[in-house]
């Protein structure tokens, strides 16, 4: 059997526990999507998912002195998968908004084609950790 196997493109970066890191995570993801030629409309969805997940990681999953990791894959079928890994415990989930909080995973669930969470060691891989968003990639631009 003579099949060519092409691995998905991957970007990842570690961010410190700092409110300013959410902006840096958004910029990191936006730059990667632009490099890959991922469509602008769905790119905004991916960036907003990352913003909500990074915020959740800071608020609920990153103890002092730690940080979180953002991982982004461009898959062959033109889908982007995002994972935000933190060192928290517990089971994240969509809940009824309470005042100014509780909307992050509601937003992720509305924008992502799929989302979920899973355990990691240590901590968890959370939120759009499984967020996958389909979009259009400019031909020939994914290898940049």
Characterization of this structure:
This protein starts with 8 loop residues before the first strand and ends in a 10-residue tail after the last strand. A hairpin with a 4-residue loop joins strand 2 and strand 3. It is α+β, with helices and mostly antiparallel strands and 144 residues long. Strands 1-2-3-5-4 form a 5-stranded antiparallel beta sheet. It is globular, with a radius of gyration of 15 Å. Helices cover 33% and strands 26% of the residues. It has 3 helices and 5 strands.
Strand order across the largest sheet: 1-2-3-5-4
Shape: globular
How many strands in all?
A: 5
User: What structural class do you assign from the helix and strand content?
Assistant: alpha+beta
End-to-end C-alpha gap: 29 Å
* Overall pLDDT score: 76
Q: How large is the radius of gyration?
A: 15 Å
H/I helix tally: 3
| Biggest sheet record | 5 strands, antiparallel
Strand residue content: 25-35%
Q: Which regions are unreliable across 5 or more consecutive residues at pLDDT < 50?
A: 126-130
* Helical coverage, percent range: 25-40%
User: From N to C, what is the helix and strand string?
Assistant: EHHEEHEE
